[in-house]
Amino acid sequence: MSNASGGALGFLHKSHIVAEPGFNRWRVPPASIAIHLCIGSVYAWSVFNPALTRALGVVAPAAEDWSLSSVVWIFSVAIVFLGLAAAFAGKWLEDVGPRMVGVVAAFLWGGGFIIGSFGIAAHQLWLIYLGYGVLGGCGLGLGYVSPVSTLIRWFPDRRGMATGMAIMGFGGGAMIAAPVQGWLLGVFQKAPDFLGARDAVATVVENGRVFAETAAGKVEVVVASAAQAADFGGQAGVYVVGTGNTGAAQTFMTLGIVYFIVMILASFQYRVPAEDWKPAGWQPKPVASGMVSQNNVHIDQSLKTPQFWQMWLMLCFNVTAGIGVIGVAKTMMSEIFGTVMPLVVTAAFASTYVLMISVFNMVGRFFWASTSDYIGRKATYMCFFLLGTILYLSIPYFATAVATNPSIVYLIGFYAATMIIFSMYGGGFATIPAYLADMFGTMHVGGIHGRLLTAWSTAGVLGPLAITSLRQMSVTNAIQDLAAKVDPAAFAEKFGAPLTQLDQLAAAKTVTIAKLMEIAPAGTIDPTPSLYNTTMYCMAALLVVAFFANLMMKPVKEHHHHDEPELQAVPGE
């Protein structure tokens, strides 16, 4: 251990940050929350999508601009590397302590933004993937796990509440980051050079690009609509490519510097308790169920226990279901209720709904984790899976009912059901570290938690993939069902092609559910609100599997216990 605590960065090692007697343990949670608020901004990634897809054209996408499909995966890469970094660095965290890990996380997360900034400025997409996705994702993983084991040791009397506080910050990060990022983009953006109205400028198309003749020669241009130009205070017409700025590069640079400073300052607030420290007057209570162990399990040994894999499955399926719904929440609200209640479910209503998702995701982390201190972790997860299954199954009911009877009651029911789902999605993240500490002891809980987060990486890919493929399947089936009811002559007249070409027309998005409804027989029920039913049934099925994994949870068998006392906090003490 003495070697590890030496060297240039020795002052960051956990042997140098053991708290003095009388240290106020409440100084540690604000530092943890600050780091989680910084890294939680990853959930606001979608704010950057419009700016990145028109980095060159600025007011409208230019020929060389990145497509939406090429930038949305940057977020997924970051989440995958979050899980991988947390898994691989968990053991290192237990060796060196939270301050060193927090400082490295600050360099990776802040530095990832700065590298991403250069990538945007140089129009090199791979640099954004490397900076934000790979390095930033590693910073996410380290920043996420760094406070967990520390807080659990400082609050043995309130494990759930302690981890809930920190992980609540991760849920709230996007709430703060989204408006701040939007504001920064507005501050730094600059409209490109305006050449004139569309009919006043002579343009020519070459190889799919639009060019205009000017006094300085031929320049590439984009043609912006009034709505596109209004975002930049301009007017509809022709703009020169490469002369404006979306503000994305400067926003990335600013955020990188700010996040780095905040995370460094927070990391230096970390302290670890002395080896035999306990809160004044607190004695561990014997738990009747035996679900809280007084023994420790080594990080490598934990992977050989069924309990670890049961929890891995529980977290993976809870997150898959939650991420799946979060990804489509806004469109789901608009598609299910927007068609039948257009006056209530407006664009503003849908945006407020998305904000409330963040609120319930954040509050649920603190509420459910704190509740688990009183009712136990196993009982808390029973609530997640039992209540969650019922709520996922209720969404198809509300969607089907509102299609035939547009009543505000169904909208309220849907709203309440999804909000409770999002609170339990956040609660699952916040309660799992305390559950791990109960099962495996506190010695290696940070590292074990890191390895368990590979379940989050898996769910980050599984969830969106399941939602999009299941929804597409429902759309295809709905189009085929509607086409079977439509008069072939009316179909041919509307779409200029016979019914036999339905598949090609649907693939080209020429035929849509909305357009088919225009020529469907009177009394045909619009299938749009039911597009997510199959998805919800599948998500409910995942929670049923997770319910049984939790139901079969038993204390870890004795032969897995670690005999040695906890590693000394100070070498040679």
Descriptive labels:
mainly alpha; 573 residues; 5 strands
Report on this model:
The chain has 573 residues and is mostly helical. The protein has a five-stranded antiparallel beta sheet with strand order 1-5-4-3-2. Helix 13 runs parallel beside helix 15. The longest helix has 33 residues. The radius of gyration is 27 Å and the shape is globular. The N terminus and C terminus are likely disordered.
Can you give the mean pLDDT?
Answer: 86
Number of helices: 21
What global shape is seen? globular
The largest sheet, given as strand count, sense and whether it forms a barrel, is:
5 strands, antiparallel
Strand content: under 5%
Q: Level of helix content?
A: 55-70%
Gyration radius, in Å: 27 Å
How far apart the termini lie comes to 12 Å
Low-confidence stretches: 1-6, 565-573
Question: What is the string of helix and strand elements?
Answer: HHHHHHHHEEEEHEHHHHHHHHHHHH
Number of strands: 5
Strand-pairing-aware structural class: mainly alpha
Tell me the strand order in the biggest sheet: 1-5-4-3-2
Give the helices and strands, then pairings.
Layout: H1 28-39, H2 49-52, H3 68-71, H4 73-96, H5 98-121, H6 125-145, H7 148-154, H8 159-188, E1 194-196, E2 203-206, E3 209-214, E4 217-224, H9 226-230, E5 237-240, H10 248-267, H11 299-302, H12 306-337, H13 347-375, H14 377-404, H15 408-440, H16 445-452, H17 454-485, H18 488-495, H19 502-507, H20 513-519, H21 533-551
Antiparallel strand pairs: 1-5, 2-3, 3-4, 4-5
